[in-house]
Structures are given as structure tokens and as C-alpha cells.
Design brief:
The protein has a single domain, classed as Winged helix-like DNA-binding domain superfamily/Winged helix DNA-binding domain (Arc Repressor Mutant, subunit A, Orthogonal Bundle), CATH 1.10.10. The chain is 62% helix and 14% strand. It has 5 helices and 3 strands. It has helices at residues 6-19, 22-32, 40-47, 51-63, 83-97, and strands at residues 38-39, 67-72, 75-80. Helix 1 runs antiparallel to helix 4. The model has no long low-confidence stretch (mean pLDDT 88).
Length: 99
Amino acid sequence: MTSPTPNREARLADVFSALGNPVRLRIIFMISETKRPLHIKAVAQNLQMDYAAVYRHIDVLKKAGLVRVFEVGRSRVLSPLHSDILNHIFALVQQIEHE
């Protein structure tokens, strides 16, 4: 494993910071479990939160490179990026919980 450079450290910190919020983790879990992109409005309804609040969380995830947001008609939908990496992180957390 190579030593992280300052840029890599900052990038890694951004990713873990984005994942360090329970609401953002719920969003990641939700979109990782579906085969198709989800409407942000549906995510907000599922979380029983205001659309604007959910969108702010999604923006953090997007800036960290964890989700992609695109427009379909007048709606915005999101899908996970790097699902395989997120699944490894989820598996690691489960392994830590069971030790």
C-alpha cells in the first residue's frame, strides 16, 4: 500500500466525512439497494424529510464522488457511484460489529 499524499488524504477525508452522517448513510443504503436510480423526492419522502434538506445531504455525497445526480425531465434522480467500494465498506463495518 502506498503512502497517501496530501491530496489523497484530503480526498479520503472528504469521503469519510460524507459517510460520517447518519442521514447520508441512509441515503447511500437506500440507493445501493435498488437497481434503478431513485427520484430525490422519493428519497425525501422515504426519509420523512424536507426535499431541500435531503438535497443538501445529496450534494455532500455528490461532491465526495459517492453519488451521481442527473435530470430526467423536470425531476432529479440519483444513483450510487462505486457501488462495489461502498459494499466493501458496508461489509467491513459488519465485520467490525461482529468482532
